[in-house]
């Protein structure tokens, strides 16, 4: 049970550049006695939120689907794309039109993208592959597989040095197939935390919206940080942060609802998922 001793609430931050617009500078907008941040890869955040070590977190959209009865979505916040995402990519030794991959190594960091890959392989390509969970190290993954799914910063680095490989950008393929956006990550809050700490969750939501607006209004800070910490050119990062979408608009919500329907149809989820949003009652 959550009590006043539960403060500060712990909030999960995705440890990849794709989530920076929602998190860079966020700590300065939070009261540290109310809210603290914990930065991890998505799979760890998914687990920590489920087990109650975190009260709210950016998580894989698929993790929201698994636990949708316990979670609420914070409105107007997500990591998605309507087209190329540039960091959720399948690296293939042979073009898929020529050789159908039988064994695909998939990063253990992801939940959304691994299941998106399964959906695309089955329903778009009519292909039953074997999926082998693996650390996201391209060369190792390809030692014993026809393809490798990698997400986040490791995918960006892999894409810079994979000339001989054939790359499928999953955001782009999803958009070409469905005409919709794809939502890779959402910000979910435990229903119990939203009920017990309405003011703190209100503050978190407002701080994240303000952080997002500030970071996207001028991408200079994020581009410089990315060049310093991850390498590459400013032009690359300008394109990267411009392709990504953070507002969870209609095309991304519709895309996510369709993704959940396909996941249920294929038995990747054992229930239907409705998107349920947090409503700010903090003023009552
Ligand atoms: C856009 C991306 O989305 C990420 C993909 C996730 C997943 O597949 O579970 C989780 C969080 C997102 O930040 C990326 O990895 O680059």
From TrEMBL:
Keyword Lyase (UniProt): yes
Tell me which SUPFAM superfamilies the record gives: Periplasmic binding protein-like II
Q: Which reaction(s) are listed as its catalytic activity?
A: chorismate = 3-[(1-carboxyvinyl)-oxy]benzoate + H2O
Q: Mind listing the UniProt keywords for this protein, alphabetically?
A: Lyase, Menaquinone biosynthesis
Domain of life according to the entry: Bacteria
* Chain ranges passing through the membrane: none
Give the enzyme class. lyase
In which pathway does this enzyme or protein participate? Quinol/quinone metabolism; menaquinone biosynthesis
Q: Does the keyword Transmembrane apply?
A: no
- What GO MF annotations does this protein's record show? hydro-lyase activity
Q: What is its EC number?
A: 4.2.1.151
Its BP terms in the Gene Ontology are:
menaquinone biosynthetic process
Q: In UniProt terms, what function does this protein have?
A: Catalyzes the dehydration of chorismate into 3-[(1-carboxyvinyl)oxy]benzoate, a step in the biosynthesis of menaquinone (MK, vitamin K2).
Q: Which family does it belong to?
A: Belongs to the MqnA/MqnD family. MqnA subfamily.
Q: Mind telling me what this protein is named?
A: Chorismate dehydratase
Primary gene name: mqnA
């Amino acid at each position: 049970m959550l009590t006043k001793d539960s403060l500060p609430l712990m909030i999960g931050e995705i440890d990849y550049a794709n989530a920076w617009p929602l998190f860079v500078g966020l700590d300065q907008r939070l009261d540290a006695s109310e809210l603290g941040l914990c930065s991890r890869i998505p799979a760890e955040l998914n687990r920590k939120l489920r087990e109650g070590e975190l009260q709210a977190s950016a998580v894989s959209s698929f993790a929201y689907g698994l636990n949708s009865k316990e979670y609420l979505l914070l409105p107007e916040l997500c990591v998605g794309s309507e087209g190329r995402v540039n960091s959720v990519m399948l690296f293939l030794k042979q073009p898929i039109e020529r050789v159908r991959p039988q064994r695909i190594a998939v990063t253990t960091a992801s939940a959304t993208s691994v299941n998106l890959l399964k959906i695309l392989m089955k329903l778009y390509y009519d292909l039953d592959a074997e999926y082998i969970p693996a650390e996201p190290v391209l060369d190792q993954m390809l030692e014993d597989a026809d393809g490798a799914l990698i997400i986040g910063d490791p995918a960006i680095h892999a894409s810079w040095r994979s000339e001989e490989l054939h790359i499928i950008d999953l955001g782009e393929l999803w958009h070409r197939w469905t005409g919709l956006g794809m939502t890779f990550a959402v910000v979910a809050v435990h229903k119990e935390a939203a009920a017990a700490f309405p003011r703190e969750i209100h503050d978190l939501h407002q701080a994240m919206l303000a952080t997002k607006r500030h970071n996207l209004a001028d991408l200079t800070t994020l581009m410089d940080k990315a060049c310093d910490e991850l390498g590459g050119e400013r032009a690359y990062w300008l394109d990267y942060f411009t392709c990504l979408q953070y507002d969870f608009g209609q095309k991304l919500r519709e895309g996510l609802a369709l993704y959940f329907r396909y996941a249920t149809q294929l038995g990747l989820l054992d229930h239907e998922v409705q998107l349920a949003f947090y409503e700010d009652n903090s003023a009552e």
